[in-house]
Protein backbone atom coordinates (compact mmCIF):
# COMPACT_ATOMS: atom_id res chain seq x y z
CA UNK A 1 0.00 0.00 0.00
CA UNK A 2 2.76 2.47 0.91
CA UNK A 3 4.78 1.84 -2.25
CA UNK A 4 1.98 1.74 -4.84
CA UNK A 5 1.09 4.75 -6.97
CA UNK A 6 -2.67 5.26 -6.44
CA UNK A 7 -2.94 7.59 -9.44
CA UNK A 8 -1.43 4.99 -11.77
CA UNK A 9 -3.98 2.43 -10.59
CA UNK A 10 -6.70 5.02 -11.16
CA UNK A 11 -5.81 5.13 -14.86
CA UNK A 12 -7.65 1.84 -15.40
CA UNK A 13 -10.97 3.64 -14.92
CA UNK A 14 -10.01 7.26 -15.66
CA UNK A 15 -7.69 8.52 -18.41
CA UNK A 16 -4.40 9.77 -16.99
CA UNK A 17 -4.82 13.03 -18.88
CA UNK A 18 -7.89 13.85 -16.77
CA UNK A 19 -5.89 13.98 -13.55
CA UNK A 20 -3.10 15.88 -15.28
CA UNK A 21 -5.53 18.53 -16.52
CA UNK A 22 -7.10 18.68 -13.06
CA UNK A 23 -3.72 19.34 -11.40
CA UNK A 24 -2.97 22.11 -13.90
CA UNK A 25 -6.36 23.68 -13.22
CA UNK A 26 -5.69 23.64 -9.47
CA UNK A 27 -2.34 25.37 -10.01
CA UNK A 28 -4.06 28.02 -12.13
CA UNK A 29 -6.74 28.39 -9.46
CA UNK A 30 -4.10 29.14 -6.82
CA UNK A 31 -2.37 31.64 -9.12
CA UNK A 32 -5.60 33.40 -10.09
CA UNK A 33 -6.92 33.33 -6.52
CA UNK A 34 -3.72 34.86 -5.16
CA UNK A 35 -3.81 37.64 -7.75
CA UNK A 36 -7.46 38.32 -6.95
CA UNK A 37 -6.64 38.41 -3.25
CA UNK A 38 -3.83 40.92 -3.85
CA UNK A 39 -6.00 43.19 -6.00
CA UNK A 40 -9.17 42.92 -3.94
CA UNK A 41 -7.54 43.43 -0.53
CA UNK A 42 -4.78 45.73 -1.74
CA UNK A 43 -2.16 43.62 0.02
CA UNK A 44 0.68 44.46 -2.36
CA UNK A 45 -0.08 48.18 -2.32
CA UNK A 46 -0.26 48.21 1.47
CA UNK A 47 3.02 46.32 1.75
CA UNK A 48 4.96 48.63 -0.59
CA UNK A 49 3.45 51.79 0.93
CA UNK A 50 4.37 50.55 4.40
CA UNK A 51 7.86 49.66 3.18
CA UNK A 52 8.38 53.18 1.78
CA UNK A 53 7.01 54.77 4.95
CA UNK A 54 9.32 52.66 7.12
CA UNK A 55 12.33 53.54 4.95
CA UNK A 56 11.47 57.24 5.06
CA UNK A 57 10.96 57.37 8.84
CA UNK A 58 13.86 55.13 9.79
CA UNK A 59 16.75 57.09 11.37
CA UNK A 60 19.29 54.56 10.11
CA UNK A 61 20.10 53.54 6.55
CA UNK A 62 20.07 49.83 5.63
CA UNK A 63 22.78 49.07 3.10
CA UNK A 64 22.60 46.47 0.35
CA UNK A 65 24.85 44.03 2.24
CA UNK A 66 22.72 44.25 5.36
CA UNK A 67 19.57 43.88 3.23
CA UNK A 68 20.92 40.62 1.77
CA UNK A 69 21.73 39.43 5.29
CA UNK A 70 18.21 40.28 6.47
CA UNK A 71 16.71 38.46 3.47
CA UNK A 72 18.75 35.34 4.24
CA UNK A 73 17.74 35.45 7.92
CA UNK A 74 14.11 35.86 6.88
CA UNK A 75 14.31 32.83 4.60
CA UNK A 76 16.11 30.62 7.11
CA UNK A 77 14.49 31.68 10.39
CA UNK A 78 11.02 32.95 9.51
CA UNK A 79 10.23 30.77 6.49
CA UNK A 80 12.16 27.51 6.84
CA UNK A 81 12.08 27.36 10.66
CA UNK A 82 8.81 29.25 11.35
CA UNK A 83 10.67 31.45 13.81
CA UNK A 84 7.74 33.85 14.22
CA UNK A 85 6.02 31.37 16.54
CA UNK A 86 6.97 31.79 20.20
CA UNK A 87 5.14 28.60 21.20
CA UNK A 88 7.23 25.49 20.57
CA UNK A 89 4.09 23.37 20.17
CA UNK A 90 2.64 25.64 17.51
CA UNK A 91 5.96 25.87 15.69
CA UNK A 92 6.31 22.09 15.55
CA UNK A 93 2.72 21.67 14.38
CA UNK A 94 3.23 24.33 11.72
CA UNK A 95 6.49 22.78 10.50
CA UNK A 96 4.92 19.34 10.29
CA UNK A 97 2.01 20.72 8.29
CA UNK A 98 4.15 22.94 6.05
CA UNK A 99 6.84 20.43 5.13
CA UNK A 100 4.32 17.61 4.93
CA UNK A 101 2.22 19.63 2.48
CA UNK A 102 5.27 20.45 0.34
CA UNK A 103 6.30 16.79 0.19
CA UNK A 104 2.71 15.71 -0.47
CA UNK A 105 2.17 18.18 -3.33
CA UNK A 106 5.51 17.50 -5.03
CA UNK A 107 5.11 13.72 -4.92
CA UNK A 108 1.52 14.02 -6.15
CA UNK A 109 2.73 15.98 -9.18
CA UNK A 110 5.52 13.47 -9.80
CA UNK A 111 3.13 10.49 -9.71
CA UNK A 112 0.48 12.19 -11.85
CA UNK A 113 2.81 13.50 -14.57
CA UNK A 114 5.89 11.23 -14.54
CA UNK A 115 4.26 7.88 -13.72
CA UNK A 116 0.60 8.26 -14.75
CA UNK A 117 0.00 4.58 -15.67
CA UNK A 118 1.29 1.16 -14.59
CA UNK A 119 3.22 1.07 -17.88
CA UNK A 120 5.70 3.45 -16.26
CA UNK A 121 6.60 1.75 -12.97
CA UNK A 122 6.75 4.19 -10.08
CA UNK A 123 9.82 4.00 -7.79
CA UNK A 124 8.61 2.87 -4.38
CA UNK A 125 10.17 5.88 -2.64
CA UNK A 126 7.79 8.31 -4.38
CA UNK A 127 4.48 6.97 -3.04
CA UNK A 128 6.18 6.30 0.31
CA UNK A 129 7.12 9.98 0.54
CA UNK A 130 3.56 10.83 -0.51
CA UNK A 131 2.25 8.87 2.47
CA UNK A 132 4.81 10.40 4.84
CA UNK A 133 3.96 13.91 3.69
CA UNK A 134 0.25 13.27 4.02
CA UNK A 135 0.62 11.84 7.52
CA UNK A 136 2.74 14.82 8.54
CA UNK A 137 -0.05 17.14 7.41
CA UNK A 138 -2.59 15.11 9.37
CA UNK A 139 -0.51 15.07 12.56
CA UNK A 140 0.27 18.79 12.41
CA UNK A 141 -3.19 19.81 11.24
CA UNK A 142 -5.24 17.79 13.71
CA UNK A 143 -2.87 18.66 16.56
CA UNK A 144 -3.37 22.34 15.81
CA UNK A 145 -7.13 22.00 15.36
CA UNK A 146 -7.93 20.10 18.55
CA UNK A 147 -5.23 21.26 20.99
CA UNK A 148 -3.45 24.46 19.91
CA UNK A 149 -6.04 26.83 18.44
CA UNK A 150 -6.40 29.91 20.63
CA UNK A 151 -10.19 29.72 20.85
CA UNK A 152 -9.91 26.08 21.98
CA UNK A 153 -6.79 26.09 24.18
CA UNK A 154 -7.22 29.52 25.77
CA UNK A 155 -10.91 30.40 25.45
CA UNK A 156 -12.37 26.97 26.14
CA UNK A 157 -14.52 26.77 23.02
CA UNK A 158 -15.41 23.44 21.44
CA UNK A 159 -12.92 22.16 18.85
CA UNK A 160 -15.96 21.46 16.66
CA UNK A 161 -16.78 25.19 16.50
CA UNK A 162 -16.18 26.30 12.90
CA UNK A 163 -15.57 29.87 11.73
CA UNK A 164 -15.05 31.23 8.17
CA UNK A 165 -11.34 31.67 8.98
CA UNK A 166 -11.07 27.88 9.43
CA UNK A 167 -11.71 27.20 5.74
CA UNK A 168 -8.05 26.71 4.85
CA UNK A 169 -7.02 24.32 7.61
CA UNK A 170 -10.24 22.29 7.36
CA UNK A 171 -10.05 21.91 3.58
CA UNK A 172 -6.34 21.05 3.85
CA UNK A 173 -6.66 18.27 6.42
CA UNK A 174 -9.90 17.12 4.79
CA UNK A 175 -8.29 16.83 1.35
CA UNK A 176 -5.19 15.00 2.61
CA UNK A 177 -7.15 12.69 4.92
CA UNK A 178 -9.59 11.70 2.19
CA UNK A 179 -6.70 11.18 -0.23
CA UNK A 180 -4.96 8.79 2.15
CA UNK A 181 -8.20 6.93 2.87
CA UNK A 182 -8.89 6.60 -0.85
CA UNK A 183 -5.37 5.29 -1.53
CA UNK A 184 -5.64 2.75 1.29
CA UNK A 185 -9.05 1.50 0.11
CA UNK A 186 -7.88 1.31 -3.49
CA UNK A 187 -4.79 -0.68 -2.54
CA UNK A 188 -7.01 -3.18 -0.71
CA UNK A 189 -9.51 -3.43 -3.58
CA UNK A 190 -12.41 -1.93 -1.62
CA UNK A 191 -15.56 -0.97 -3.52
CA UNK A 192 -15.76 2.24 -1.45
CA UNK A 193 -12.60 3.63 -3.03
CA UNK A 194 -14.53 5.40 -5.78
CA UNK A 195 -16.76 7.19 -3.27
CA UNK A 196 -13.81 8.45 -1.25
CA UNK A 197 -12.00 9.50 -4.43
CA UNK A 198 -14.99 11.71 -5.28
CA UNK A 199 -14.88 13.24 -1.80
CA UNK A 200 -11.13 13.71 -2.18
CA UNK A 201 -11.62 15.66 -5.42
CA UNK A 202 -14.32 17.84 -3.84
CA UNK A 203 -12.18 18.67 -0.80
CA UNK A 204 -9.12 19.36 -2.96
CA UNK A 205 -11.12 21.64 -5.24
CA UNK A 206 -12.34 23.57 -2.21
CA UNK A 207 -8.76 23.84 -0.90
CA UNK A 208 -7.26 25.26 -4.10
CA UNK A 209 -10.36 27.03 -5.39
CA UNK A 210 -11.10 29.01 -2.23
CA UNK A 211 -7.83 30.97 -2.12
CA UNK A 212 -9.54 34.42 -2.20
CA UNK A 213 -11.63 33.52 0.87
CA UNK A 214 -9.16 31.44 2.88
CA UNK A 215 -5.71 31.90 4.40
CA UNK A 216 -4.00 29.96 1.60
CA UNK A 217 -2.47 33.12 0.09
CA UNK A 218 -0.89 34.01 3.44
CA UNK A 219 1.97 31.63 2.71
CA UNK A 220 3.02 33.99 -0.09
CA UNK A 221 2.56 37.19 1.95
CA UNK A 222 4.19 36.15 5.21
CA UNK A 223 7.81 36.05 3.95
CA UNK A 224 7.47 39.59 2.59
CA UNK A 225 5.90 40.81 5.84
CA UNK A 226 8.65 39.11 7.88
CA UNK A 227 11.35 40.79 5.77
CA UNK A 228 9.67 44.19 6.15
CA UNK A 229 9.57 43.71 9.92
CA UNK A 230 13.28 42.90 10.09
CA UNK A 231 14.10 45.93 7.93
CA UNK A 232 11.98 48.21 10.14
CA UNK A 233 13.91 47.01 13.19
CA UNK A 234 17.23 47.46 11.40
CA UNK A 235 16.52 51.05 10.30
CA UNK A 236 15.08 52.02 13.69
CA UNK A 237 11.50 52.77 12.62
CA UNK A 238 10.20 49.58 14.31
CA UNK A 239 6.85 49.99 12.49
CA UNK A 240 6.05 52.84 14.92
CA UNK A 241 6.17 50.41 17.86
CA UNK A 242 8.01 51.07 21.15
CA UNK A 243 11.04 48.95 22.05
CA UNK A 244 10.27 45.69 23.88
CA UNK A 245 10.04 45.80 27.65
CA UNK A 246 12.71 44.05 29.68
CA UNK A 247 10.12 43.04 32.30
CA UNK A 248 8.29 39.71 31.89
CA UNK A 249 4.52 39.67 31.69
CA UNK A 250 2.79 39.07 35.01
CA UNK A 251 -0.58 37.50 35.67
CA UNK A 252 -2.03 38.24 39.08
CA UNK A 253 0.36 37.44 41.90
CA UNK A 254 2.28 34.74 40.06
CA UNK A 255 4.91 35.54 37.46
CA UNK A 256 4.45 33.27 34.45
CA UNK A 257 5.79 33.02 30.94
CA UNK A 258 3.25 34.38 28.45
CA UNK A 259 1.44 31.96 26.12
CA UNK A 260 1.58 33.20 22.54
CA UNK A 261 -0.69 31.75 19.91
Write structural notes for this entry.
By secondary structure, this protein is an all-alpha fold. It has a domain at about 5-35 and about 90-220. About 65% of the residues lie in helices and about 0% in strands. It contains ten helices and two strands, in the order ααααααααααββ. The protein has helices spanning about 5-10, 15-40, 45-55, 65-80, 90-115, 125-150, 150-155, 165-185, 195-210, 220-235; strands spanning about 250, 255. The protein has a two-stranded antiparallel ribbon with strand order 1-2. Strand 1 (about 250) and strand 2 (about 255) form a beta hairpin. Helix 3 runs parallel beside helix 10. The longest helix has 26 residues, at about 15-40. The radius of gyration is 22 Å and the shape is elongated.
Short description:
The chain is mostly helical. The protein contains 10 helices and 2 strands.
| Beta-strand fraction estimate | under 5%
Radius of gyration: 22 Å
**Taking all residues together, what is the mean pLDDT?**
83
Order of strands, widest sheet: 1-2
- Which overall shape is indicated by the principal axes computed on the Cα atoms? elongated
- How would a textbook summarize the main sheet? 2 strands, antiparallel
Number of helices: 10
The poorly predicted ranges are: none
* Element order: H for helix, E for strand: HHHHHHHHHHEE
What is the structural class?
A: mainly alpha
Q: Between the first and last Cα atoms, what is the distance in angstroms?
A: 37 Å
DSSP summary, beta strand count: 2
Percent helix, as a range, is 55-70%
Amino acid sequence: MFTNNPFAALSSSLPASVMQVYVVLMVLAVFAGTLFDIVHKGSARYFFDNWKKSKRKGPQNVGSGEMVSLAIKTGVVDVLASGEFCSARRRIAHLLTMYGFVIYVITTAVMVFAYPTPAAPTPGIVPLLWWIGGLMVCVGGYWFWFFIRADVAAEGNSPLRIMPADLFVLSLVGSVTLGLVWAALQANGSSAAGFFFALYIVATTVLFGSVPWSKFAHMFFKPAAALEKRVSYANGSRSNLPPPSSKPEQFGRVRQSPRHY
